[in-house]
Amino acid sequence: MKSDVEAADALKLRYEELAKEIGKVIVGQEETVKLLLTAVFCQGHCLLVGVPGLAKTLLVQTIASALDLEFNRIQFTPDLMPSDITGSETLDNNRNFKFVKGPVFANIILADEINRTPPKTQSALLEAMQEYAVTVSGQKHNLSRPFFVLATQNPIEQEGTYPLPEAQLDRFMFMVSLDYPTFEQEMQIVKNTTSSRTVQVDKILTAEEIIEFQQLIRKVPVADNVVEYAVRLVHKTRPNIADASAQARTYLEWGAGPRASQNMVLAAKCHALFNGKYSPDIEDIKAVAYPILRHRIVRNFKAEAEGVTTEKIISELL
Fold this sequence. Notes:
By secondary structure, the chain is α/β, with parallel strands linked by helices. The protein is built from 15 helices and eleven strands. The strands form four sheets. Strands 2-5-8-1-9 form a five-stranded parallel beta sheet. Strand 3 (87-91) and strand 4 (97-101) form a beta hairpin. It starts with a helix and ends with a helix.
């Protein structure tokens, strides 16, 4: 690209092409697709919460196909071991140790039902998500870039599950709540999936182009008042400080950390570029606030007893 402005225009065009291409397979879920692509371009990760049968796996496979990236799916189970994710060392024919890469060595990882495996295995993803590398037998192995983890959780059945600790939840840029399709959307889904219809998803972006756009988003200028709004919004969630809102003091046990402020500004930059703006404003911050704060604030007993939801608290903060 000759300039950053030209690159910004190209990103908007590519996003529209991606959304159109993904829409060939996925009916509806435009906001979910937008958030997932935002996370990809911001070098973040997503936690997708939805009941079974909402095409979570198909959605990620389709995005991986449109982005021309390598995709691996890891089904988390109670007996899964860390080495089943990262890989392990084995003896070759010459009795030398050789590292065999695990499924985490891909560009897009679907961690299916991540809360069904013990914390020891869940934590195997921590280093990969944060450091873009895994360490096996003291040796560090770098992952390919771009690297994106989409973890899913089933909100209905919690028996025999291991809830993600707050430290690991904070590693996810977004928590995206997937809703049921509308009546018209479900009609279209049933027609598409019960016929002989086949769809070819075209490749829109390469890994190299994605990395260039990731670097572009970091360059987007942000006005001080927009950064101040994001930081002040996060400070309002912390019940034990002077800037806390009345809602936080009443209904929250813990508030969001600094990573929430960082992700909010970064996501707002990408959201602005997707909408044809060269710099984010407060409306862009508000647009990404829910999925960023949803998993970073912890309700207290009073909130749970009175049925005050996380979404209602965030709405009051905004």
